[in-house]
Design a protein that fits this description.
11 helices, 3 domains, about 30% helix, Alpha-Beta Plaits, about 375 residues, alpha/beta, 17 strands, 5-stranded mixed beta sheet, 6-stranded mixed beta sheet, Udp-n-acetylmuramoylalanyl-d-glutamate--2,6- Diaminopimelate Ligase, Chain: A, domain 1
C-alpha cells in the first residue's frame, strides 16, 4: 500500500476540486510513492500529535486543517509550524489535507453536522459549480438545409458535440434568415443588391476551449456561405444541489431552541454552547443554516435564504451582533468541536475501501480551549 493508494481513496470521498479557492489541500509533505500501511487522523497537526504518529510508526497523517497554509519561507526548527514539517520529513511521514473539500463533499463534515439537527431536507448554502471541459462553449451557425449534414460531421470530427460519453450531440431548428449583399459580395443563394429571404437550419453544438479554434476552422471550410454566421457563447458553471460549503437545513418538524440545543450537544458531545437570540425569535425553528469551523462568511447566504438560526463553530463578535439585529439566532459550539466528531466517520470510509491499512484517530488532538 502506497500513499497514492490512500490519496485515491480520500479523493473519491472528497475530490479536491470541491475545496475553496483560498484553501491549501492535497498532499502537503512527502511522496505518493512512500508506503502507507498506517494512517493517523487528526484535526490539527501539533507537535504532540506528530510525536504520537512517530511513536506509532505511522506512514501518513491525514490532517483536516492544513499544517502548511500560508507559504513557508524556511523549514527549520525556529517555530512549531516549521518544526512539525521538518520532523515529519525526517521521520518519513507524509501529510495530506482535505479541509474544505471534505466540508463540501456529500457525506462530508457539513452533512454530518446537519444530521445532528433532525430529519429534514439539506442543501449547500454556497453550491459548488462546475461545467465539463467539453461543454464550456456553445458554437452556433445557420446554414442551408442541404449543407447541414456536412457541417455537422465536420464540426463533430473537430471535437464539438461531446457530452459525457455521447458524441455528435447537437440541436437543429428550421427557420428563415435574411441578408442584403453589397456590391462587393458574391452570395451563394439569391442576388446582391436586394434583401433576400432564405430557408436555413440553426445548428448548435458544445465545444471545449482547446477544440474551439479547430471547430470554427472546420465550420468555415465546410460552410457554403461566403460569410458563415458564427456565434460563440461561454456557458456558465452549473451549481450542484448536493455539493458545496455550508448547509441549509429545513426540518420536517419545527423545533424549539431548547430542542435544537439539546440535539447539537448530544451530536457533538459538548456540554455548553454559546447562544445569541435573534430579535423577534420564533417559538419554533424550521430553517437552519450551518457551517463547520468558522462559518461567518456564509452568514449572509443563510439569512438571505430564510434561515432563522445559524449554527457554526466560531464567529466574529460584530458579525454575531449583525445577525441578531437581522433576526437570526446564532449558536456557536467552538471551532474544532464542529469538526472533530467527523473523524470517526472518515475512519470508517477509509477502512471500507482500504482493507490493508490501519486507520487510527489521534488521542492527542484536542481543542485549544476548554470549558472550566
Amino acid at each position: 500500500m502506497k500513499v497514492n493508494d490512500v490519496i485515491n481513496a480520500l479523493e473519491s470521498i472528497a475530490p479536491l476540486k470541491y475545496a475553496a479557492s483560498w484553501d491549501n489541500v492535497g498532499l502537503l509533505v512527502g511522496s505518493g510513492e512512500w508506503p502507507a500501511e498506517s494512517i493517523l487522523l487528526t484535526i490539527d497537526l501539533t507537535m504532540e500529535v506528530l510525536e504520537e504518529a512517530i511513536g506509532a510508526e505511522t506512514n501518513l497523517i491525514v490532517a483536516y486543517h492544513p499544517p502548511i497554509f500560508e507559504p513557508l519561507k524556511a523549514v527549520t526548527d525556529a517555530d512549531e509550524k516549521q518544526a512539525v514539517v521538518l520532523e515529519a520529513i525526517r521521520a518519513g511521514i507524509a501529510i495530506y489535507s482535505s479541509h474544505t473539500a471534505l466540508d463540501a463533499a456529500p457525506g462530508g463534515v457539513n452533512d454530518w453536522l446537519a444530521a445532528g439537527l433532525g430529519e429534514g431536507e439539506s442543501m449547500p448554502l454556497e453550491a459548488h459549480a462546475e461545467i465539463p471541459t467539453g461543454e464550456k462553449n456553445k458554437i452556433i451557425t445557420m446554414c442551408p438545409p442541404d449543407a447541414f449534414a456536412t457541417i455537422h460531421q465536420a464540426m463533430s470530427d473537430a471535437g464539438a458535440g461531446v457530452i459525457g460519453n455521447y458524441q455528435q450531440c447537437s440541436f437543429r431548428m428550421a427557420g428563415k434568415g435574411t441578408f442584403f449583399g453589397t456590391e462587393d459580395t458574391n452570395p451563394v443563394t439569391g442576388k446582391k443588391g436586394r434583401l433576400e429571404h432564405v430557408e436555413e437550419i440553426r445548428l448548435e453544438m458544445v465545444c471545449s476551449d482547446s477544440m474551439l479554434a479547430g471547430v470554427i476552422d472546420a465550420l468555415r471550410k465546410t460552410h457554403p456561405y461566403e460569410e458563415p454566421p458564427i456565434e460563440v457563447y461561454r456557458l456558465s458553471a452549473r451549481p450542484d444541489s448536493l455539493i458545496g460549503q455550508g448547509r441549509r437545513v429545513k426540518l420536517n418538524t419545527p423545533a424549539t431552541l431548547d430542542e435544537i440545543i439539546t440535539r447539537i450537544k448530544a451530536h457533538l458531545g459538548v456540554e455548553q454552547l454559546k447562544v445569541a437570540l435573534g430579535r423577534k425569535a420564533p417559538a419554533h425553528y424550521q430553517t437552519i443554516g450551518l457551517c463547520a469551523g468558522a462559518g461567518g462568511s456564509l452568514l449572509d447566504a443563510a439569512i438571505e435564504s430564510g434561515c432563522e438560526l445559524f449554527f457554526t463553530g466560531e464567529m466574529r463578535h460584530h458579525a454575531a451582533l449583525d445577525a441578531v439585529a437581522r433576526g437570526c439566532t446564532i449558536i456557536l459550539a467552538g471551532h474544532t468541536n464542529t469538526e472533530r466528531g467527523y473523524l470517526s466517520e472518515l475512519q470508517q470510509k477509509i477502512t471500507d475501501t482500504q482493507e490493508d491499512v490501519t486507520v487510527v484517530i489521534s488521542s492527542f488532538d484536542r481543542a485549544p480551549f476548554e470549558m472550566r
